[in-house]
Amino acid sequence: MIGQLVKLCWNRKGSQALVVVEVFISFLVLFAVLTVAVYNLDNYRRPLGFDYHDVLNVSVGSLSDAAEIGAGRTRAAAVTDSRRLLGEVRGLDAVESAAAMEVPAFDLTGRTDIVEYEGRRLESYNNGVSDDFAKVMRIQVTRGRFFEPADDGLPYDPVLINERLAGDLFGASDPLGRNVAPRPDPGRGGGEATREIRVVGVFTDFREDGELSGPEPYFLRRNPVAGASAEPYYNLVLRVRPGTPPSFEEALMERMRATVPGRTFQVDPLAKTRRSMMKTKLLPMAAAATIAGFMLIMVALGMVGVLWQSVARRRREIGLRRALGATGRGVSLQVLGELLAVATAGLLLGAAVAVQLPLLGVVGWIGNGVYATAIALSALAIYGLTVLSALYPSWLATQVQPAEALHYE
User: Fold this and answer.
1) How far apart, in whole angstroms, are the C-alpha atoms of residue 208 and residue 206?
2) Helix (H) or strand (E) run with residue 131 in it
3) Among 88, 128, 303, 313, fewest CB within 10 Å belongs to which?
4) How many CA atoms lie within 13 A of 280 on its CB side?
5) Are 354 and 24 in contact (CB under 8 A)?
6) What are the boundaries of each domain within the chain?
7) Model confidence over 242-252: pLDDT tens digits?
8) Angle between the N-to-C axes of helices 328-354 and 270-313, in degrees from 0 to 180, rounded to the nearest 10
9) How many CB atoms lie within 10 A of CB 21?
C-alpha cells in the first residue's frame, strides 16, 4: 500500500513538488520557533535560585569614579556615601535587610570573566555583591558559607560559585578552599603581586536574567564596604516586609535624598522589572510564532487546493474504483495517504537539515533533548495540518459514485 502511494505521488511529482517545498520551508520555520519555545519552557521549570518577591532595586545615580573626582568628590567620599545609604535604609522599619549588587537582576546585562583551575579555563557570568546579599535575595548556600565582615582581613579574595560552575570546573572534587586564578593587585607591587581568588562557598544558582535564561556557570565576588579595596555602590537591593504599600517607595527616595544630597535615585520593585524583562524576551517569540502560524495557514490552503484539484481531475478513476468495489472509506484513506506521503517527503528533507544543528554544535547551549523534542513537535504539527487539510477533499472523493466512470469517453 505504501509503495503504491509513493508511486502515485511520484507520477504526479510535477503538481506536488510545490507542496513538498512548502512543507520543507514550513517545517524549518516551525522547528526554529519550537526550538526556542521548548528551550525557554525547559529553563522556566528550573529553579531561579533567588526570590525576587518583596524586593526593591534602587539605582543610585550614574556617576563613575572619574565623574566623582571631576565634581570635586573623592573616591573615598563616594564610598562613605555608599555606606551611609546602606546603613540608613537598613534602619527603616519596612526594610528587613539590604545589600548592594553590581549588576541589577532582570537587567539583561551581565559581566563575564575567565576562571581557571589546574589548566582548565571557563568563562563564567559573575556579579559583585555585599555581605547581606544572600539574606536579601534568599540564595541557598549548599556548601561552605556566604561572605561576612571578617573577610575584610583575608589575604585572598573570597568568591562563591554555583553548582554548575563547581561541576564544570572541579568535577567531583570539593571546590571549597580552592584557588581559581589570581588577579593583579595594583596596591601590592604595582600589579606584579597577586591576590588569590578562593572559593569559600557554593550556592544553587543565580539566574539574574530570569526564568527564560539558561543555566550558566556563575560566581559571586565580594564588594567590601570598608578598607582600602572598598568601592562605592550604585545599585542596592532591599527586602521589604510583606504588605509594604507602594507609597513606601517615594518615602524611601526622600529619605535617601536627605541622606546624600545631590544624588538621583530610582526605585523599582524587582517583580515589575521582571515583568518588563519577560515582555522584552517574549515579544520576538510571539512575532515569530505569528509568522509561523500564517505560513502554516498558507501551506494548508495550498494542500487543500492541490488535493481538491486532484480529486476533480480523477473523478473517472475514483468512480471506476467504486465500481470495482472500493468503499468510500477506502477512497478517503487513499486520498489522505497520498497527501501524507507528499508531506513526509517535505518533512524528511526538513529533518535532514534540522539534525545538522546538534551534530555540528551550531548552538552549543541548547541540548540535544531540546532539538529532538522540537523536531518531534514540528513533525506532529505538520502531520496534523496535513490531516486537517485532507478532510474536505477526501470527503468529496467519497461522494463520487460508480456511475461517474461512465460520464467520460
Assistant:
1) 6
2) none
3) 313
4) 12
5) no
6) 2-45+277-407, 62-263
7) 999 999 999 99
8) 130
9) 15
User: Rounded to an integer, what is the distance from CA 26 to the centroid of its chain?
Assistant: 23
Residue type at position 213:
S
The answer to whether 233 and 89 are in contact (CB under 8 A) is: no
- Please report how many Cα atoms fall inside a 13 Å half-sphere around the Cα of residue 222, on the Cβ side: 27
Give a three-class secondary structure readout of 18-43: HHHHHHHHHHHHHHHHHHHHHHHHHH
Cell of 27: 517545517
The packing angle between helices 2-11 and 13-44, to 10°, is 120
Question: Length of the chain, please?
Answer: 409
Q: Which secondary-structure segment (H or E) carries 374?
A: helix 368-398
Structure confidence by residue, pLDDT tens digits, 70-87: 454 567 777 888 888 888
| 23 vs 160 pLDDT, higher one | 160
Alpha helices (H) in 186-314, listed in sequence order? 247-259, 270-313
CA 335 to CA 4: how far, in whole Å?
A: 12
The answer to whether 38 and 209 have CB atoms below 8 angstroms apart is: no
